[in-house]
Amino acid sequence: MFGCVVGKRKPQWHLAASSDREYFARMLVDLYRFFKPRLTILDGIVALEGEGPGKSGRPRGLGVILASQDAIALDRVVLEIVGAGVDDLFTCKVARDDDIGGTDIAGTQVLGEDIASVMVKDFVFPKVVDIGFPLPFNLHRHLKKHLTAKPYIDKKSCTLCSMCVDICPPSIMKKIKDAIEIDYDNCIRCFCCQEICPEGAITVKEGFLMKLLLQ
Q: What is the domain class of 137-214 according to CATH?
């Protein structure tokens, strides 16, 4: 649904949401309820698992195409296929908490292939640690630096095309001589840079505390 946001409003909304994923998800759900698409089609022939998006992920064949008049129900079915739950996808979580509907898999009618026949039991998800709980501002800012993942640029793979610099919503990436530098203190962790990098030179680097939690 974010494709319905035009021009420079996209980075503005990214910046407004910052690293608050639930805020961003609620915005997407609001867009969905406003535009009310008649049909949503999802191409799941090849999925991307691991630390995506972009070249950092790994292609994984699922061999499915799904369509629904209810995009939330469609997302819920996809979660079931890859072995995830409602709380693993913020848009579904927001829809459930707001009682919008579509998140109850037991009440979802599925035509065609049975869900069990296309389920994947070993799908690899990106490593995510949420620090969305209430904390004093200074402490939250400090934890964000050491607990959240951040984009990391492999200088050997980077061709200095500056596509990441151009797309960065808060404009905290700069091309300086023979390298791209990131102001991590003001990085909102939207990972637009990782998604657009044509060389796969931008990967996810875990913070120190995050590494300890994931061990």
A: alpha beta
